Amino acid sequence: MKLTDFITISDVKAHILGKSMVGCIFPAFNDREAWASVPEELQQSWLTQAASYLNYDWPSLRATAFMAYFEEGSRKPYDSVESERRSALCTLLIAECIEAKGRFLREITNVIWLLCEQTSWCAPAHHYLSLQPGELLSNIEEPLFDLSAGETAALLAWTSHLLKVPLDEISPLIRARIRLELERRIIAPYADRNDFWWMGFGEREVNNWNPWCNANLLTVLLLQVMEPERKEMLLDKVLRSLDRYLEVQFEDGGCDEGSTYWARAAGMLLVNLELLYRASDGALQVYDQPLIQKLGQFVYNMNIDGHYFVNFADGSALASQDYSMIHLYGLRIQDDQLRALGQIGFRDYQVPDRSKTGISFFQEMISLFSFASIHMVAEIAPPCVQDVWLPNLQVMAARESEGTTNGLFVAIKGGHNDESHNHNDIGHFVVYVNGKPFLIDIGVETYTQKTFSPQRYEIWTMQSGYHSVPVISGFEQKEGRSFRAEAVTYANSADTVRYGVELAGAYPAEAGVRSWHRSLTLHRGRHPAAIELRESCSLAEPTDQVLLHLISSQMPQFTTNGIIHLHDGLGNKLLIHYDAEQWKVESEHITVTDESLTRVWGDSLYRIHLKLLHAVQQGIWVFRMTEGKS
Predict the structure, then answer these.
(1) What pTM was computed for the model?
(2) Angle, CA of 466, 471 and 473, to the nearest 5°
(3) Cβ count near 172 (within 10 Å)
């Protein structure tokens, strides 16, 4: 699909260019009726948060904090302060729009000045975008357009747009400075350069950066005044850049960056589409296109229960989704299951405190102005899709029964080991019981310099040895696009759903794997229901050096009759049946210290080792998983 097949620059000229955006995308500052319609509880929460910034001692951004990323590999010293500045401005801006008494204007001016005085809006981790990378500090003469720069630019554009009159009453130089910095740091680099990889005009394949950066640039273009010809040229470039993103999306809507990245992938595509839709009073839209619909549906196809999602790749099992945006997507594509996921998740919405980073003004405004309507509508049943098959992504998910989280849930993936935000995890699977995790995908630790470096696969969570796949003759899976799944099959019926995959291509030649076929079957027509894992191998030489790993959030208990017991302390149990004459079972306790992981799993995980007892050159083994009864 190409966006420009449906929305051309001529359409943009006809429906957007030359049109005032005041009150078009969101209510204008002087539309007091609209702002007064925000529920009182939300108004008070935003005002309380904003009041904490009155007479605030704003943290400085030191050169040593910037350098810390290159010297120590840590993003936190610099990124946390920069994110706090944006979070504060977002909070203060919303509060001033709600109250309209000028109480927050001076602190808004303070943080505007701080942002405008920053040497760079680009995060240290992204300074590889420079034409001359390798410096410990940023070159002020080469502004770089990354995710962070885009977020800062869009927020300043909204501030200037909404607070035009009150800021100009303080001094016209405030908005003039914003215009200058937006031009210098964002608009000019976007116009002049085609080599930012996320634009899609080079050889590197794009990912979520493309819609994310373009959404922020589109915001700036719509809200800022500039020469019509230049704005037209830039908007045309945005449309062509978004085409590069859509061209590499799977027809099945699957996102190889994982469901946790949905908000920054399909969710950011939605921001672009919604900006065009609202700016044109609904004239420009592609919400009826199949690919746009499938990209939205991916998020509920990966939902397990509540806030638990299938989290292959760099994702968290407890995903922080933006449920108001999910609900909006569902409204636009007229999908009740997507609306349901958004509605249910949004019931937990709270105004974020200032410790939260990454706040997007656009997304907070959607939450603000849809809060009442979402809560007013009768609750819709959760999606809980019974069978999901994404043939392009090579991901399957299945549960015992449609519409309920009761019973067994399983998901498995194929793909290749050079996916965006890749882990070496071909053939990896997860198992949940009654919506609770038992065999898991660990996720990813807090990002550091190492995460996106040549040393990425030195990080334990990225290695196949910490996923539910075999280690063969001492060899784990290798990274790279050539290491991939083969002969992926899928079949389902009312009683059975089966996934098959050849794993040999995921291992180096030295492993001597002629074939390793894995099939995973959910038998839901039986009583009790069961998940059957079948491993069939052919090796170059006989060996007993075969390990099957299972990662669990519960401490395993072993019996002498070939059953592994997993209990979650909430009355849910999983039993794993294996042939004790063929396999020796052990477990390893993993102490978890990273805060991104402890938030989900606490301080302990367990790696179950199933070690082959006898040397084989060929073998077939079957493992069975059932729900244990309390």
Answers:
(1) 0.95
(2) 150
(3) 10
Q: What is the DSSP track for 57-124?
A: -PPP--HHHHHHHHHH--SHHHHHHHHHHHHHHHHHHHHHHHH-SSTTHHHHHHHHHHHHH-S-SS-G
pLDDT value, residue 215:
98
Per-residue pLDDT tens digits for 123-177:
999 999 999 999 999 999 999 999 999 999 999 999 999 999 999 999 999 999 9
Task: Find, among 190, 105, 124, the residue nearest to 153 by Cα.
Answer: 190
| Separation between Cα atoms, residue 474 and residue 249, nearest integer Å | 36
To the nearest whole percent, how much of the chain has pLDDT over 90? 94
Residue 183: Cβ-neighbour burial (10 angstroms; 0-12, 13-18, 19+): middle
Burial of 603 (0-12, 13-18, 19+ CB in 10 A): exposed
> What average pLDDT score do residues 460-487 get?
97
- For the chain, which domains are there? 22-248 (no CATH), 255-383 (no CATH), 387-628 (2.70.98.70)
Tokens 């992926």 belong to residue: 488
Neighbours of 270 (CB within 10 A): 29
Mean pLDDT, residues 81-98: 95
Sign of the CA dihedral running 90, 91, 97, 98: positive
* pLDDT tens readout for residues 170-203: 999 999 999 999 999 999 999 999 999 999 999 9
Q: What is the DSSP letter of 545?
A: -
Amino acid at 172: P
Question: Is the four-CA dihedral 609, 614, 617, 623 of positive or negative sign?
Answer: negative
CA 82 vs CA 90, 416, 428: distances in Å: 13, 35, 37
Give per-residue pLDDT as tens, 395-418.
999 999 999 999 999 999 999 999
**Longest CA span, the chain:** 82
Task: Please report, in angstroms and rounded to a whole number, the separation of the first and last CA atoms in the chain.
Answer: 51
What is the number of other CB atoms lying within 10 angstroms of the CB of residue 510? 11
Any idea what DSSP says for residue 128? Answer: G
Helix, strand and coil in the chain, % to nearest 5: 40, 20, 40
Q: How far apart are CA 369 and CA 375, in angstroms?
A: 11
